Amino acid sequence: MAKIIDGKAVSAAVKEQVKKETERLKSMGITPGLAVVIVGDDPASRTYVNNKKKACELVGFYSEEYALEGTTTQEELIALVKRLNRDDKINGILVQLPLPPQIDDKAVIAAIDPQKDVDAFHSENVGRIMIGEYKFLPCTPAGVMELLASENIDIEGKSCVVIGRSNIVGKPMAMLLLHKNGTVTITHSRTKNLKEVCLGADIIVAAVGIAKFLKADMVKQGAVVIDVGMDRDENGKLCGDVDFEQVEKKASYITPVPGGVGPMTIAMLMKNTLTAAKLANGIE
Ligand code: GUN
C-alpha cells in the first residue's frame, strides 16, 4: 500500500513559513498585496478565488478581489490589469482562468507586469523557467515539487512521466523535473503507447483532466503517483485523474484528491506573492 502524501499538512507548513516572513516584512513597513480578478460566475473558479482570499487573510497579506461581469470586454479587463500594474499596494496580480470566450487570455496575460505575474504565465516568466532562472515558479508544478521534497523523493536520474501538456501544468512540470535531473517524458492525448510509457515510470504526474484516467495496470510496482486532476466521477463526486483505490495498492507514494496537490497550488501562490513583494522592495 502506498504512503499517502498529505497536501494539507505540507501546504499548512508552507503557509506558516510565508506568514512568518510576512511578519518580518510588516515590521519593515511592507505588506504584500495580491489582486485576484475573476470574470463571470464559473462555480469552480469562484471556489478557487474564495480559497485564495482565505489564504491571504491567514498569512497576513493585503488582498483585493475584482469580480467582473461575464460580459466584460477584453479592453476593460486589460485596463484593470494596467491599473493594478501601477498600484504600489499590489505586488501580485492573478487573473483567474478560464476567461469568457470574448476575451483572449493570451492578450490579458501579456498585459500583466512580469514582476507581478505570480502565476508565472507571462512569456517572460515562462522563458525564465525554460532556462532555469526563475523568480516565480508556476504554482501547481511548484506545489508538486514541494510534495516530492516533503517525502525526500529523489528525482535525479529517475524516469518521470507527465501526462498532459498544458501551459499551466504539463509543460512547466516537465521543466521543473528536468531541472532536478529527472529523465522526463511528456505524454498527451495523441501518445500511442501510453500504457507502456507509464509502466516505465518511477514518477508519474497525472494532469490530463479526465476522471480516474490512470489505472493500476499503467503503473509500475513502487512508482510515485502525483494526481493534479480535479474531476467529477460518475456520481458527481470530486476525484482526480488517478484511479486512487486501485493505484494505491501498487504505488509507493500517492497524493489524494482532494487534499493533495490542490492545497499546494494556493500555498505556492502565497509564496510567489511574498517573493514579488520582496522583489518590489529590493529585499532578499
Ligand atoms: N485556473 C485554474 N488553475 C489556475 C491557476 O493556477 N491560475 C489561474 N490564474 N487560473 C487558474
Write up this protein.
The protein is 42% helix and 15% strand. The strands form three sheets. A six-stranded parallel β-sheet has the order 1-11-8-7-5-6. A three-stranded parallel β-sheet has the order 3-2-4, with helices on both faces. 44% of the residues are buried. The protein is globular and about 50 Å long. With 284 residues, it is of the alpha/beta class. It has two domains: 28-114, 3-Layer(aba) Sandwich (Rossmann fold), CATH 3.40.50; 139-262, NAD(P)-binding Rossmann-like Domain (Rossmann fold, 3-Layer(aba) Sandwich). The longest helix has 21 residues, at 7-27. The structure holds guanine. Residues 94-97, 119, 139-140, 168, 265 line the site of guanine.
In CATH, the architecture of the largest domain is: 3-Layer(aba) Sandwich
Tell me roughly what share of residues is in helical segments.
Answer: 40-55%
Number-wise, the strands total 11
Task: Provide the spatial order of strands within the biggest beta sheet.
Answer: 1-11-8-7-5-6
Q: What is the CATH class designation of the largest domain?
A: Alpha Beta
CATH superfamily of the largest domain: NAD(P)-binding Rossmann-like Domain
Can you tell me the overall shape? Answer: globular
Task: List its traits.
10 helices; Rossmann fold; 6-stranded parallel beta sheet; 3-stranded parallel beta sheet; single chain; binds guanine; alpha/beta
